Amino acid sequence: MHVHDLLASDIDNTLTGDETALRALADEIRDLRERGELWLVLSTGRRIEQVIEGFEAEGIPVPDAVIGQVGTEIFLPPFRSGREPLEAWAAHLHEQFDRATAIRFLEGVDGLVMQPDEFNTQLKVSCFLDGAPDPEAAATEIRGRVARSGGTYQVVWSSGKHLDILPAASGKGRAIRFLIDNLGLEVGRVIAAGDSGNDRSMFDEFGRGVIVANAQPELRALAEGQSEHAEFYFARAPYAAGVSEGLRHFGVLRDDRAESAS
Ligand code: GLC
Ligand code: MG
Known about the structure:
There is one protein chain. The N and C termini lie far apart (about 35 Å). Strands 4-3-2-1-9-10-11 form a seven-stranded mixed β-sheet, sandwiched between helices. A four-stranded antiparallel β-sheet has the order 5-6-8-7. The chain has helices spanning about 20-35, 50-55, 85-95, 100-105, 135-150, 170-185, 200-205, 215-220, 240-250, and strands at about 5-10, 40-45, 65-70, 75, 115, 125-130, 155-160, 160-165, 185-195, 210, 230-235. It has nine helices and eleven strands. The protein folds into two domains: about 5-90 and about 170-260, 3-Layer(aba) Sandwich (Rossmann fold); about 95-165, Hypothetical Protein Ta0175, Chain: A, domain 2. By secondary structure, it is an alpha/beta fold. Helix 1 packs parallel to helix 9 (about 240-250) and helix 6 crosses helix 7. The relative contact order is 0.17. Bound molecules: alpha-D-glucopyranose (GLC) and magnesium ion. Alpha-D-glucopyranose (GLC) binds near residues 46, 126 and 198.
């Protein structure tokens, strides 16, 4: 069986942000998928309905799987709104997550605002901290509370604004690992692509990926922590053009313009 590389890409501000570049990248990804060379997994904080709307409205490429709600939900094709996420993944996560307990970590944090109900599920507690007097300090406080609680919860902090409390066993990276293991996919290299904190777990899990030029500081920090085996590529271009640049760097996309010449 042919071994596919797997592109695990975030959507917002990684694929989206430059419509023309996304259209060009989506065409190239579609060709690779049709030739049986690439699996595409979209891994996002969005709800599945927002991903599906994006296929038409935003030109987001149709993938082989969707990881939604920051890695707490997994969807396989056919993608239709109202479809339930993969039960095996949900059941695995439910074992160690209690929403009422998770909410208690947020008690008394000044300026904290809960995100809308549709982004607060039985496996994900999400709020905004950009209204806090010092968002970084507030996030650090919550992180400390969760760390002291002993291990089955995790904090994901993104873009100086979004804070999620999730099962420690979840997150984008772990969800993709589950997908690969449980579907028995013959995967070659996994290449992550992202712009913000909720993408971090993909880089940590797979050690390889593209950070777009518009990335948040929390992902830029990967440059300092580069482990010996890590292959993190910091693109010069933002958004989909950055993803495309990274895929050329890794040789997934070939380019007549010979990247090495520039
Ligand atoms: C997306 C989700 C939101 C989450 C954020 C960061 O914006 O909709 O709930 O807090 O990603 O993970
Ligand atoms: Mg993003």
